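anyone else get weird line breaks when pasting these?? whatever heres mine. first is seq + tokens for prot A
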Amino acid sequence: MSSAPPVWSATVTFAPADTTPAVAVDQAYRAKYGRYAGSYLEPMLTDQAAAATLRLAPQD
């Protein structure tokens, strides 16, 4: 019996992410990963990380 997850695929378009909700996303990361402040959290909140964020939009 296999417990592997089902395979899923979709055709998507990559686009720049909307930066509007950045404050809310940063707060959510702080709430979830705050206990790892120095090692994981701070790199996720840099301008460089935000600039590398992409939106995946499904193609019709």
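and prot B, same format (seq, then tokens)
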Amino acid sequence: MGGEAGHSSMIPEDILQIQADAQAGLADSRFRAAAARAGFQLAGVAAAGLAKDYPIYDQWVADGLAGPLGYLTDHRGKLREDARALLPAARSVLCVGMLYHTPGPQAHSVSRYAWGGADYHDLVRAALERMVGEMQAALAKFEYRICVDTAPLLERSWAREAGLGWIGRNTCLINEPLGSWLFLGEVLTTLELTPSTPPADRCGTCRRCIEACPTQALVETTAGRARLDAARCISTWTIEQRGALAPEQCEATGGLLFGCDICQEVCPWNRRAPATEEPGFQPLHPAPDPAELAEMPEAEFRARFRQTPLWRTRHAGLLRNAATVMGNSGDPAYLPALRRLSESENSAVAAHARWAIEKLESRR
């Protein structure tokens, strides 16, 4: 009698909720299993909706901290306020993380994410497509949209909400125990999965990244956090910024050819970061010879780097950066290569070469 009474008192809404919970649990397990098989080390879920960090992002833009990064300040900026701007029917944001940390030389001129022979955009997108394909084969039909870091989505904020890690003072997503050497990806979907729990911020009182930044690009806030001033960041200068840099920027760039990892390298959470076995991320060019790059014709640059992140600088940008690195090296053996670059038709390349020649000759 008691059992029958219990069943008879259950209202349809209860039954629907139990069914919905069961479906969400199945979808969640399918998602996590598919993510792992696709090559992602991290996976979590956030409820689609307003981005909690949008006011912070909006203020960052208003304060001019985006510098020359126009793709963060253009008409797409407002789209970052709500994930549903990209998929109106979205109920969940499936967030994943892929480790790109590999063993390599301690002294390197190229940012670690660009060491390999693959463009991470292509590799992460292909992995997301495999993941979604497996989910579609196992679950009822659903709508989705795949996003990598070119989409107008505050991906670190969504990754934090999905439990993948916290946003550190170096402004990177940090996971315990994987660290911050992570590529992020997202799938907006009409599936309604149970949201994950964001982890606690574990930076504590550590300020190593702020103190180590050679250009003071990490600006500490009154709340004890930090904001990136992109206009002062070496990664911005060597990857995104076109044309000639100011002499003080050339000096501060030091031996960095493409990007900068200093704020991640000093992070204690990266001390024991595991290494990935992904072939596309294995180091091919962590520290290329700048003199060799200076002699590289555009066709060879295209053939060698077209499918890698270094393509972002274009040929002229890489020559410009190579001239800067040679000038900061203190090695007069680079003078012949620099003199050839000083005759370049590209004004930025020629200007950097002349700056480098003057610097090296002043030390003789």
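btw re prot B: The first helix runs from residue 2 to 8. The chain has 14 helices and eight strands.
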